[in-house]
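Problem: given the chain below (217 residues), write out its structure.
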Amino acid sequence: MTNDCKDRDLLPIEPCIFTGGGFESQQLAAGLDGVMSGTLFSSGSADFSAAGVQPGMVLCIYSSVPAEARAYEILSANSGTSLTVSILRSDRDGPAVAPPTGSSLKYYINTFAPQISAAQSTLLEKLRRISEASGVAAASFVDSAQLLQAVALAVLSDIFTARASNAFADDANWVKAEFYRRQHVSAVSALRLAKDIDGDGFAEQTRTLGNVSLRRI
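Solution.
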């Protein structure tokens, strides 16, 4: 099983981590020559393929101040110089929604992929250990929106914890870090491992993850 949490899943919860500046993200690309036509974004100076730009990442476009950027989800990397993008959709599988057209656009693409990978690995390792004790093969797991949400909340907690480094205890970033940590613990507690023994589509055995607490130091 692989969890499919992407940058675009963090965007509706905390758009400021992409547009607010100062966050612990990795910049993959940036330029001043962006062109938006329908859902096609292109930049003659870019090499999106070499930069590792992937679907699910976030493209930010701004006029003069990067912190005031508009953020769009990347649906596909078509070539080294072009992407298919969309205004953030409520349904990940819904049709693309074209952003406003424009040329000579300033843009950047930041990602939290390393943080997502770390949070995902931690949670999936926990699920693997529990599954072994329950006689459920990890390969039989079915991904879920609830699992994706649990990973997203863990990532946000990590991001704000990093941003709050050396800050006072009442700093807003510490408050957000603790809020998302608690939300993550709650989301994990609500997860269930369900085992369909006879393959009839109904679980004969379930196990809650609520008896295990995740604590960040």
